[in-house]
Amino acid sequence: MKIVRYESNGRPIIAQIGGNRILPLSDIDDLPALIARWETDATLSSVQSCGPGFELAGASLLAPVVATRNVFCVGWNYLKHFDESTSKRAGQGVELPQHPTFFTKLPTTVAPPHAAVPLHETHTAQLDWEVELAVIIGKRGRDIPEADALDYVFGYTIANDITARDLQRAHGGQWFKGKSLDSTCPLGPVIVTADEIADPQNLELSFHLNGQSMQQGHTRNQIFTVARIIAELSVGLTLLPGDVILTGTPEGIGAARVPPVFLKDGDIMECNISGIGLLRNVVRAGLEVSPLLGTIPANT
Ligand code: MG
Known about the structure:
300 residues, mainly beta, Fumarylacetoacetate hydrolase, domain 2, 5-stranded mixed β-sheet
């Protein structure tokens, strides 16, 4: 099932995609209820749509999930991305990690799939992109064995882990500040349920900036698989339904280019993952508001 959320009369509505139409679900009020249903009906065969729905094209979608706590992220999960970043880690001698490198983005970073993303031009001069496969957790678990880890995945979506590189490096080498500016984690447009992704390590992902290819990757090149990430993240830490985990970005970020390329007003960012779809956001100067904090800006 491909799942989207949209707003109607000020309320979020959850729907599935059927062909080129959005089909609202009957008796499911939002994603947490759908995930609860999934726990007893893994194929969601008992879920029905109501009515003929409406055209997907042009629909104004919400982020497919509301983050109730920080978005979990993995850094350095593709070897070529680790290598391309080596020269950017001045003063930080870092060996290739033996375990996943975790950090988080605040819930207020989450942005809708078609929203304009703020350039944050008064805060950073180095806003950068990162296409990533995102995992939506479906059931509560702690100390999850790697062999069972994919059973905890409700579905997958696309994320753009937008990062202010100058803020990332200005605060002691941590990754939180530079990655938690408002509306810097567009998600979507759909969640594809796990039963429709036979192998999360067999997905192509790409990023285009204004139509030009910048990142071309494949999840088979992840250093730590989705299952390993879930197993290690859940060590002594309870994962909850609806948790979002970003699984790292392949090589081709703007900061590692010669000369570097950073986002500017009007840039069109397109994140693609095979089997999931296209996450497309425009960068806009003069926008300062997170969708969770106020009005959702238009994507034009
Ligand atoms: Mg990232």
